[in-house]
Specification:
The complex is a heterotrimer of chains A (about 525), B (about 300) and C (about 350). In chain A, about 35% of the residues lie in helices and about 25% in strands. By secondary structure, chain A is an alpha/beta fold. In chain A, strand 7 and strand 8 form a beta hairpin. The chains are: A alpha/beta (about 525), B mainly alpha (about 300), C mainly alpha (about 350).
Chain lengths: ~525, ~300, ~350
């Protein structure tokens, strides 16, 4: 069958990180199909789609649409070519109505000067009607649900006559019913002759909605299949590839005293159909690595912020050594000895314009004063010299940390945080984007902490590292814990994968989703007052 | 004191005092909606004040004076906008630069052209025509309050209405608000936020030019630093007016009223003149702080 | 204002481009305005250096600028804007004078100490108020500091022309402070006084405070990356107030030093421009307390040059403000830095 879109030999390397996000990628999409682009975090799916939509420019490669080569230099050019994209993070103006957001930039006019709001609403209503969306054009974005916001983004593209629609992780923020509604819409669009590319890593959905699948891993295309020919476990295997085998001798096992515990931690935000975190309870104990995993968008980031004291919780309690520390300040948590290696190394974990030396003393700078109350330079220099060699950091103490490579920045953060460990440490995505050698170094340090009796919390979407390191594995799905299991031979990638993707749930209390949803709707109204 | 003899001239006076605040705030609203705090208003008013009166004197025409004064102010606002948006400079520092430039340029030119940096009197300048509609003037109270102002006062009201139309009824206003609210929504659709911000800045040049003209042409003279903080107070007026043209009209009136009240108070109470001068700043700070207290409470 | 501080070459080149543009604008202005441009330019550039009186006065006028520059640098280092410098300097000068006037019999050391302290506290409280509003209610400190300062200018005016006015003098000025409080002149016949040494020491101490103490460290971290600071357990709210207190304290001291060293009384409007110049000084010094000293001297030179050109030739002193505005316009322009970086890569 003739390809409608073909992207050939696309390569893209980001100069800032040196990361090869796309390596000679080929993508063929047929007219009238739903094509799933799947892969783990960092596989290069979003980069490829950003290239197609003109947000990024490829280093090499060509794009053909309906047999003609096209140049897509910006989103406007993509729109003109009939390509529309719905981003994972919505780009909407909250104060505007649905119709106004849709027509922004291509407004219908009344006479030569005036914006015709009525016509905008009518035009948008027509698009809504035709595609059976459940939304009213005159509602303000600030009054609608997250699921409806996504509809607005789709309507925006349909209004611009998009023939090829790209959806980036469209289901990550939606409730089950909203997902079903979205899929109904997508099928409707296909009937009208549109073509859809959907980026996702939720396999059940891939099976449910797509016609064909392109699997990406580490910037390359691994496989292209008809959906009917593969089952979920096969897709899963293609996505993650061969397991990287980490085999560690974990050493001591025993002393399990609770250090930090969460009880029913819940976060609810206005306008969010369901809580971001929903009744999270677990204990992090001495001599234990507790591994928390899940797919992006299922509450891992928020859990990280809660443990670090950077996000307030709506209900529930947090304890450290049996003392209630619910919603205490990050400073108070640090004073209690929390060591924390954050996901966002560049914005949170380091101050890029500041020297390595000064980055190293963020949490301990009070210990470097001499009797006169000024910094003891000699001590600071020795400190940084020691850490640089101990943690194998390739960089000078006096250069801004921003000039170092990603792996070395992470080692600086690691050095600083582990230097202050008392009895608990939080690692979040500690090896994201790092090479094997740096990753192994970090794993060794983590096990060293465990051997010292420290309670280690590891949040990671990388199943391999969770399996290799964690004594207890917690899987999150849609803000809830769906599995809590001790590690062992029967706990495999496949088992975890099923939980991660929502195929299994040990703690499911209510099979009837609708009553759950009504409940949250009422809560939402309550908060609005 | 509640009789009409006192309150009618008071309100009449408030209306003429509020005009420059109103104009500057409407201009500032345009940049504010585009997502930029425009601290250059003060300098732009000064530029408008100086150039409109000297051009009026040079050409002997009020109209030409106002027109050329406004053009000059727009030109300065263009410099401010271009450096901020296209050379990517810090908007606060370039705003200060504009204020400094205004102070320096007016003094240097005043000295160079007139040999003094003091007050410039233009005695033979025609005074601004007033709008008097004898038939309507007869309406009790309202007639006395609303009529008999100079035409620029009415023009400022017209500008409020036009501003409302531009902001809420034209594609430009629509995109400007989009820019301020979420520039990513704009760029995702291939629209350039800077272009809309630039136009907002040029509009603030226009209204500040007019605000300056109101000050000097009313007086028939140029007094150094005649803007005296009005551009800064206008920034707060924008907030107090809820960032809408008619809200700003109301807020500007409150400021006009406060200032004319303090002028009256000076007449029969023994308040030092300096305190009267400090008064607008004090109530502005107070209003600003109270606003932010309310806002923080609401958010929590 | 994000610049990679390590790349001094880029920073220096961009600064040169900025200053070059400023002087180019000035030369153009002089050629347009002046009947005798050559002479004017001579007086502008050479005037301040031609005799002891001008030279000393130039150094003398740098003294308050160093202090206001330090004040702004402290605020900028923590990403706070203090636009109230003018009023803080003025109120500081008045506070010091008001304390010193009733104390004619006190010892010089005691009298000077408590007068300067009064100035420092006055300035700190005024600026700290804006920091407090910001911390507590997120009130924009940029506007609030400006407005508070402007209100204060009139109130200080009132004290100078009212309660503290010298009845024996027709000028708008307070009585003179007792002679034992006057700072010692060190470069007669100019006004340059001994405080310049103390101020230079203060600049060095300020450098140490910012770069060698834990408070300075925390302050800088809050300015560079507040999320990083909060993550590391630094109380970010505290560093909305503390830098403003410091900033105001430096400004208040600047006012006091100008009175005790030069005028010995508060003249109406004596501090005009010192606050704004402080911002320019801090920007050119890239908020480095040591670099504030040469930057202040540069601005003092600029003002002295304009003054000399005004006295000896046919232009007015405000020509300096225009040069200054060009510096303000361009000093934060990212495009200039990128241009220099690009050129450098190309070579």
């Amino acid at each position: 069958m003739e390809s409608y879109l073909s992207m050939r030999n696309i390569s893209k390397t980001f100069s800032s990180t040196g990361l090869k996000a796309n390596d000679n990628v080929n993508l063929e999409v047929r007219k009238g199909e739903i094509h799933a682009l799947v892969g783990e975090n960092g596989a290069g799916k979003t980069t490829l789609m950003n290239i197609l939509y003109g947000i990024e420019q490829p280093d090499t490669g060509t794009i053909m649409l309906s047999g003609k080569e096209i140049m897509i230099t910006n989103p406007l050019a993509a729109n003109k070519a009939g390509i529309g994209m719905v981003h994972q993070h919505f780009k909407l103006v909250n104060e505007f109505t649905v119709a106004q957001n849709v027509v922004l930039g291509t407004e219908p006019m009344k006479g030569a000067f005036f914006f015709d709001n009525r016509k905008a609403e009518a035009d948008v209503a027509a698009v809504i009607e035709k595609n059976r969306f459940h939304i009213s054009p005159e509602m303000k974005i600030s009054e609608i649900s997250v699921g409806q916001m996504q509809q607005v983004e789709i309507i925006k593209m349909l209004y611009r006559k998009a023939e090829l629609l790209i959806l980036d992780e469209p289901t990550s923020v939606l409730t089950e019913q909203e997902i079903q509604r979205l899929f109904k819409t997508l099928r409707e669009l296909i009937k009208q002759g549109k073509t859809i590319i959907i980026i996702t890593h939720k396999l059940a959905e891939v099976k449910d909605i797509s016609d064909r699948i392109t699997v990406m891993r580490k910037g390359r295309v691994i496989s292209v299949k008809d959906t009917a020919d593969v089952d979920e476990s096969e897709i899963s295997r293609m996505m993650v590839g061969k397991s990287v085998v980490f085999d560690f001798d974990k050493g001591v096992d025993g002393c399990r005293d609770a250090v930090m515990s969460l009880e029913n931690v819940t976060i609810k935000k206005k306008r969010q159909g369901r809580p971001i975190l929903d009744g999270i309870s677990f204990e992090a104990s001495t001599c234990e690595i507790i591994g928390i995993t899940g797919v992006a968008g299922n509450g891992l980031t928020e859990l990280e912020d809660v443990i670090a004291g950077l996000e307030r919780i709506s209900s529930g309690r947090v304890y450290h050594n049996d003392q209630d520390i619910t919603n205490i300040t990050p400073k108070a948590l640090r004073d209690r000895g929390l060591a924390y290696v954050p996901t966002d190394r560049l914005k949170r974990g380091s101050s890029l314009e500041t020297s390595v030396k000064e980055n190293l003393i963020l949490t301990t700078h009070h210990d470097f004063m001499n009797s006169g109350g000024v910094f003891d330079e000699v001590k600071i220099n020795e400190h940084s010299k020691r850490l640089i060699s101990e943690y194998l950091i390739d960089g000078h103490a006096d250069v801004p940390i921003g000039t170092l490579s990603g792996g070395n920045i992470q080692k600086v953060i690691l050095a600083r945080e582990l230097e202050m460990v008392k009895d608990f440490v939080l690692f979040s995505e500690p090896t994201w984007g790092l090479d094997i050698a740096s990753s192994e170094f970090i794993y060794e340090k983590m096990l060293e902490m465990r051997a010292r009796g420290v309670a280690v919390i590891l949040i990671s979407s990388n199943i391999d590292e969770i399996l290799a390191l964690a004594d207890t594995v917690i899987v999150m799905y849609r803000g809830r814990i769906v599995a809590k299991k001790a590690s062992g031979p029967e706990l495999t990638r496949e088992v975890i994968g099923e939980y991660m993707l929502g195929l299994k749930d040990d703690y499911s209390t209510d099979d009837d989703c609708s009553s759950d949803n009504d409940h949250s709707k009422n809560d939402f109204k309550g908060e609005d007052n | 004191m509640s009789n009409g003899e006192f309150s009618i001239p008071l309100i009449h006076n408030s209306i003429s005092i509020m005009t420059p605040f109103l104009l500057a705030a409407i201009g500032g609203l345009m940049t504010e909606l585009g997502g930029m705090l425009n601290i250059a208003l003060e300098g732009l008013i000064l530029i408008g004040a100086f150039f409109s009166v000297i051009f009026a004197a040079a050409t002997g025409s009020l109209f030409l004076g106002i027109l050329l004064g406004i053009l000059m102010t727009i030109f300065i606002s263009w410099i401010f906008g271009a450096i901020t948006l296209y050379l990517k400079a810090n908007v606060f520092i370039t705003g200060l630069a504009t204020n400094l430039l205004a102070g320096g340029l007016t003094a240097v030119l005043s000295f160079h052209l007139f040999g003094t940096k003091g007050v410039l009197m233009f005695n033979d300048l025609p005074s601004l025509p007033s709008l008097n509609v004898p038939a309507l003037h007869g309406i009790p109270v309202l007639g006395d309050i609303l009529f008999g102002h100079n035409i620029l006062v009415y023009m400022s009201w017209l500008i409020v209405v036009v501003a409302w139309i531009v902001i809420y009824r034209t594609p430009f206003g629509f995109r400007l608000r989009g820019t301020g609210s979420n520039p990513n929504a704009m760029s995702a659709l291939g629209l350039k936020p800077q272009n809309y911000q630039m136009i907002g800045i040029l509009i603030s040049g226009f209204t500040c030019g007019l605000a300056g003209a109101v000050l000097t042409l009313n007086l028939g003279a140029y007094v150094p630093n005649i803007s005296s903080g009005r551009g800064w107070i206008a920034l707060v007026v924008i907030y107090l007016g809820g960032k809408t043209p008619f809200g700003i009209l109301g807020a500007a009136f409150v400021f006009g009223l406060a200032e004319s009240l303090s002028n009256y108070a000076q007449g029969f109470m023994d308040i030092p003149a300096d305190f009267i001068l400090a008064f607008p700043y004090i109530i502005t700070v107070a209003a600003m702080v109270i606003m932010s207290v309310i806002q923080t409470r609401r958010e929590d | 204002m994000k610049v990679n501080r390590s790349d001094w070459f880029v920073t220096a080149s961009a600064l040169l481009i900025t200053l070059g543009a400023a002087f180019a604008v000035m030369l153009v202005m002089i050629f347009i305005m002046s009947e005798t441009p050559g002479e004017t330019i001579y007086y502008f550039f050479a005037g301040p250096l031609t005799n002891k009186y001008y030279l000393g006065n130039m150094f003398n006028s740098a003294i308050p600028l160093i202090l206001t520059g330090l004040g702004i640098a402290f605020a900028f280092r923590s990403s706070m804007f203090n636009l109230g410098g003018e009023g803080q300097v003025y109120a500081g000068g008045l506070a010091a004078t008001a304390v010193a006037l009733p104390l004619p019999a006190a010892g010089a050391f005691f009298g000077i100490t408590i007068s300067l302290l009064a100035a420092v506290v006055t300035g700190a409280v005024i600026a700290g108020l804006s920091g407090f509003f910001k911390m507590k209610w997120r009130t924009d400190e940029l506007i609030s500091s400006f407005l508070i300062s402007n209100a204060l200018i009139y109130i200080v005016d009132n004290f100078i022309t009212g309660p503290l006015d010298d009845p024996e003098n027709n000028l708008l000025v307070t009585s003179k402070i007792a002679e034992q409080y006057w700072f010692k002149k060190i470069f007669l016949p100019s006004n340059l006084d001994i405080s310049i040494f103390f101020i230079a020491i203060i600049a060095v101490l300020a450098f140490y405070y910012l770069f060698k103490t834990h408070q300075g460290y925390e302050m800088r971290m809050c300015g560079l990356n507040p999320e990083f600071a909060r993550y590391g357990g630094i109380n970010v709210g505290k560093y909305m107030i503390l830098p403003m207190l410091w900033s105001g304290a430096f400004h208040g001291l600047a006012g006091a030093v100008a009175v005790f060293g030069t005028s010995h009384a508060c003249y109406k409007g004596f501090s005009g421009g010192m606050g704004w110049n402080g911002i320019a000084v801090a920007l050119i010094a890239r908020n480095n307390p040591i670099a504030v000293i040469p930057a202040a001297l540069f601005f003092a030179y600029l003002e002295a040059g304009a003054k000399s050109a005004m006295i000896n030739a046919d232009v007015t002193i405000e020509i300096a403000s225009i040069v200054q505005s060009v510096v303000f316009f361009l000093i934060t322009a990212q495009a200039i830095y990128n241009f220099v970086k690009f050129r450098r890569k190309a070579v």
